[in-house]
Amino acid sequence: MRILHTSDWHLGRTFHGVSLHDTMADLLDEMVQLVGTEAVDVVLISGDVYDQSQPRTETVRLFSKTLSSLVDAGAQVIATSGNHDSAVRLGFASDLLAHSGVHLVTSQTQVGQPILLPIKGGEVAFYGIPYLEPRPLATHWNTDISHSSVLTEAMRRVTENVAEVKPLATVVLAHCFATGADPSDSERDISVGGALSVPASLFEAADYTALGHLHGRQRVTDTVRYSGSLLPYSFSEQNHRKGAWIIDIDEQGTVSVQEYTWRTCLTVKKLRGTFEDITGGSYEAYRSAFVSITLTDAVRPARALEQLKEHFDHVLELFFEPQGVQHTELHSYRRTREARTTFDVCQSFYQHVRGRALDEDETAYLTEVTELARLAGASE
């Protein structure tokens, strides 16, 4: 049996306000092609199918189309709900969809109930653990209010069922933060309602644990791994190699794992330097990338953003950190508040922002503008 471990699709996500819908659609087409060419039997989605609990219509249509295409390509799909998903909405018609090979695990009542798929030599048992909110569930399950406690109880139920079913191999899907893994800036904090992390040893009863929530593909242990998000969702992910894990289980139940890196990608990059450095051609490779730029010029360049947009298609962040200039103290605006004229206020603000005083032409222009404003106000 060949399995594709994915997670954190975050369908409907934007990057600093820019829609990722088209890029995601291209990547999901690549996934469908991969299922066909690599004879993938099962596609796993370990939580956060959607980015919002109430996704847009076009986002739902994309997911529906992808599910149909994956099944047509020969794979069954097992998906769990994450902390971004609405478990109720994602789980709609789950019983009906299961007959078509799409298995949605979104309720705590499904924990410990396996999805059994045949393999030469026996069956592989898949146990989906949806994102479990500790506070309401702790009372119901009689556990402490923490992620570790509720997941411990979830795995106890899984282990108990494995002893009854005796599958050839066991695969667990979970959405959590495992100790020892590396987070990024784009995951939503799930620490509310108890300790954030859980030990990887919690999943030692499984032959493979397909984790979701963290957006960097990584190995926690040989049998516990994160596939990461399909696309980067913050500039902290600029060095991620986005992809998935391909897991093979043979007729003896032996598990082997290999990585797959998506060809469809979104390049995000942080650039830092003077305006001349940034626009000098050294960063031409990032013209079509999503860029965050920090300018280090001692004097802030005029019309910086407008000029940078002539060199880069997507300037999504712009910061100024002048080098060699003494940082303004926090109380520097006291000068502005104590200024007695409109000209003084504007002059002080300009010097604070640009790091230098007005030159002769700028002083003349500001004098004229503030005087016109004063006269206009006096005539009302």
TrEMBL record:
<dbReference type="InterPro" id="IPR004593">
    <property type="entry name" value="SbcD"/>
</dbReference>
<keyword id="KW-0235">DNA replication</keyword>
<dbReference type="InterPro" id="IPR029052">
    <property type="entry name" value="Metallo-depent_PP-like"/>
</dbReference>
<protein>
    <recommendedName>
        <fullName>Nuclease SbcCD subunit D</fullName>
    </recommendedName>
</protein>
<keyword id="KW-0540">Nuclease</keyword>
<keyword id="KW-0233">DNA recombination</keyword>
<dbReference type="GO" id="GO:0004527">
    <property type="term" value="F:exonuclease activity"/>
</dbReference>
<comment type="similarity">
    <text>Belongs to the SbcD family.</text>
</comment>
<comment type="subunit">
    <text>Heterodimer of SbcC and SbcD.</text>
</comment>
<keyword id="KW-0269">Exonuclease</keyword>
<feature type="domain" description="Calcineurin-like phosphoesterase">
    <location>
        <begin position="1"/>
        <end position="96"/>
    </location>
</feature>
<dbReference type="InterPro" id="IPR050535">
    <property type="entry name" value="DNA_Repair-Maintenance_Comp"/>
</dbReference>
<keyword id="KW-0378">Hydrolase</keyword>
<dbReference type="Pfam" id="PF00149">
    <property type="entry name" value="Metallophos"/>
</dbReference>
<keyword id="KW-0255">Endonuclease</keyword>
<comment type="function">
    <text>SbcCD cleaves DNA hairpin structures. These structures can inhibit DNA replication and are intermediates in certain DNA recombination reactions. The complex acts as a 3'-&gt;5' double strand exonuclease that can open hairpins. It also has a 5' single-strand endonuclease activity.</text>
</comment>
<dbReference type="InterPro" id="IPR004843">
    <property type="entry name" value="Calcineurin-like_PHP"/>
</dbReference>
<dbReference type="InterPro" id="IPR041796">
    <property type="entry name" value="Mre11_N"/>
</dbReference>
